[in-house]
Amino acid sequence: MKRKRLKDLSIRFKLLMAYLFLVLIPTLALGISMSVINTNHVINTTKNNISNNSKILKNGIETIIENENSNLTLLINDFGYNQVLSDNLPKMASGDKQAEENLRTAIYGTNGNSGDSISGTIDYFKTSDNTIYNLRIYTPYVTTQTFNILDPIDENLEDIYQYCKAHTGSNQWLFGSGKILAYRALVSFGASNVEDIDVIGMLCMEIKPEFVAAPLSSSSFLDNGYYLVNDQGLVISHRKIANEAIEQTITENLKTYSSKEHKDETLFVSNCFICKETLSNGWVIFSYVDFETISGNVWTNRIIAFSITIVSFIFTTILAIIASKYLTAKIVNLKKGAEAIFNNNYDYLINEDSQDEIGAVASSFNMMAAKVKKTLQDMVDTQDNISESFAEILESKSGQSGHHVKRVAEYSAILATELGYSPQEVHDISIASMLHDVGKIMIPNSILDKPGKLTEEEFAIMKQHVVYGEAILKDVKGTIMQMASTIASCHHERWDGKGYVKGLKGDEIPAIAQLVSVADVFDALVSLRSYKPPWSFENAKEEIIRCSGTQFSPRIVEAFKKTYDQLVEVAKKYPDGHQIDETDHF
């Protein structure tokens, strides 16, 4: 039983292995792929968010720069307008001491009257927001700090002035020494051509760096840190990065990354995302997001992906176990059918109502079993008929009607059933018992038909019929014929060992021979013989019981006592002289 269960489990194991290869492994692969895809999605989404937010911040700073450019342009235009209106303003030339007075007049007006000066415009900036904390005019003609229009700042602007002389066409921005300078060249008017234009000074707006970087410092998106640098890699504004190793990597490479050779993009450097955005004036915003910031989302997505995979795994595994159990049950059912046929149980039907392949196999199996059963039954019937006919011929040789073999056959069947033999064994014993006296065919009729008691010599010859019977049947193949050979050779053995011809004792005598011995003697006692009249059923019963433990097996005698009434009915069913119809069965 344990071995059968192991085989059933083996089938289920194979089905589960097939499931693993066909379903589970692809499911796991899909889960891993989902995890990778989700990780890449989070990374790409983060890069896009960094880039988009950086562009928004860039636009904010660009707006501030544009506004300040407008302020600077307004000052320049106002200054130039007043300079044009003042007819007394001469062309500024290097070394002309009048230049200082002319500039004073342009700024403060004549006799302090600001109506013809730019002082009104300057007053506007003085009272405006705090974005500008100084205005200054620089000229080589002025050696004092007079023209620090707002609070003066000590700074050598000579290099800027020289640069401004070479670039007079647009507003310029510069960051240095912790200050942002927006400056524009002041040129003389009244020149007849471009070559006559002379740079007479420079107007500078000193702008608070924190104001320009306000969109960066107020952005929660850049909580991790940022850098605003000029095109030379000088830091204008920044928020300290918590990760010192990453901050060191960035600061060491600011000049390299801020160069034009590096295009605007989102880089993945030292386990963090760095987005570069270049402003119109050449400044660069570096926004930074540490990978650890998004790793939570990455792991969340991975956990979700793996959770889905695990749930799918559990669900599909449960389904696979149920399916394998279902399929295994069908296969085991087929196996039971095969085992039933192997054990000669041709009445076993495989109950399978499904319309699938297994149902078709079960249906074919049942039809095969029915056909095998019919074929075997035909063979058995043929063998039974041959055995019966042979026994009747034998009985007729001795002048008997043939009912003896029928009665012995049914007696044997009744006793075998009582002793617990299977239906097939009962049938085989019944047929085999018909040939118990087949050896008498070799005994002369003079001995077989002799009235009265046989002489010792005649009895010695008579005893040889068991030897002849065994010799006739032992080489015939088949279960029934081998049983018949055993019965023929041993049915005259006695329990006490005094029988013939082998002198077997007790359980040395084959059980089927013990059984047929009782059946044969009982029928002989109640039947008419040439050497004796028939006994009554009761007298025969008493004789059988009396011989228990001497001539007969006690176990067989007990079965005889329990089935006595059935045996009597058989004897009455086939009395001597009664013609048996061919449709009768036993």
UniProtKB/TrEMBL annotation:
UniProt KW Transmembrane keyword: yes
GO BP term, example: signal transduction
Domain named HAMP: residues: 325-377
Spans through the membrane: 303-327
Highest taxon of the lineage: Bacteria
Domain HD-GYP, chain residue ranges per copy: 379-576
Keywords, ordered alphabetically: Membrane, Transmembrane, Transmembrane helix
This protein's record includes keyword Transport: no
Cellular component GO terms held in the UniProt record: membrane
CDD domains reported in the protein's UniProt record: HAMP, HDc
Protein name, as recorded: HD domain-containing protein
Protein source organism: Treponema rectale
